[in-house]
Predict the 3D structure of the following.
Amino acid sequence: MQNFGSNNELDEKGHVLNEQPKIKVKFEPKPKPSKCPICTIEYYQQFFNIEQRDVYMRIRCSILSWKPEFHQCVGKNPDLWGPLWISTTIIFILFAGGNLSRFLLEEDKKHFKYEYNYMYVAVLIVYAMAFIIPIILGVIMKYILKSELGVFDIVCMYGYSLSAYIFVLILCIIPYNEAQWFFLMCGLANSTIFLLVNLWDFMKKNKQTVLIAIPIISFNVALILCFKFYFFRLIYAVDD
Amino acid sequence: MDYTNQKHPQNYSQMEDLKTLDLEESVSETIMRDLRMIAYKLKYVLIPKEQEDNGKELRNWDLWGPLIFCLALAMTLSFKADSTTTSSKSDVFAIIFVLIWVGAFVVTLNAQLLGGKVSFFQSVCLLGYCVFPINIEAIIIAFIGSYLPFVVKLIPVIICFAWSAYSSVGFMASLVPPHKKKLAVYPVFLFYLFLSWFSLIV
């Protein structure tokens, strides 16, 4: 009796001989090498290879800025989660807190005009400080001044240096001039000391590398001046 | 062919069979069917008891629902915005619209970069549907907010914010490995906080 329907081997009586176990082969197409590796998601996944405990440790390193422990915390694993979400939190606090601070000062609370421009300016300033400036500095340090630190190490460091401003800017909602200046100065000191202490190994190499401290300090000072004179400016009623 | 006597589909897969016949039906039929689909998904996303199959229903993602809620929120808030200058109305509309879509995009990208294996649009769809409670609170505050003191206005804001966040957090947290859950959930929290803040202050 012929069996046309089966592919298995048959013995004389037509019974199926040793059924081969069906092996499922998963066909995975080879990933095409991208022309632009920086443009793929896979490239950036290496910078999100951290756990919530790591983020907590790095923020702690940044708040206790006088201890040069950041490189130990980070190891070979700079991350972009911290810079991205710390800067976004600061944008929210600037937008909400800046307007809240003006609202508390306003006498005519019913006709308070909310300034939506704060949103655009906050996004511009904070993302420039958290990403554009460290990328430029990192490229200069790595390719011109021959630093061992990569560009993303510097971006990571700058991002976490802004973490002190989260607390500082919440406190700046208090609408008193002196209090705001005090808190902003504390934030400036913390952030700048953190950056300088952790870059000290690089800076002490020679006279040229020390000069990197100048842009670092000046950009931080410019940042708090923006905070004070745009977001938390105090408008005093003028008596005629 | 007469479709008006058909029973309402009990689940979404039955709705799929009807899709092949939509060229022959009237426009109102198509629109009602799409609205029923959106309502079904909304109930599924926002009421935790409905999710017996662990979010599999979300594989049938759509962006109509998120678009409707986004436009409704942007229009409610810009309608309520300070009417002394036209630019602040358009500012509010633009900010809310961009915030919702860019925010959903960035939060989903964040989850993917942390190692979450999820379809991009599935996650955007979920985040968009969870904007609905914020819509409710914006409408409440838009109509009766001026008669209430600030503290009383806070109550629906906090309730709706918590409802939105709770609905989406379960899904987002399930996407990533256990030690990264807070890293995936915090952006969701920030996203809804931003939107709730807008509905409170406008």
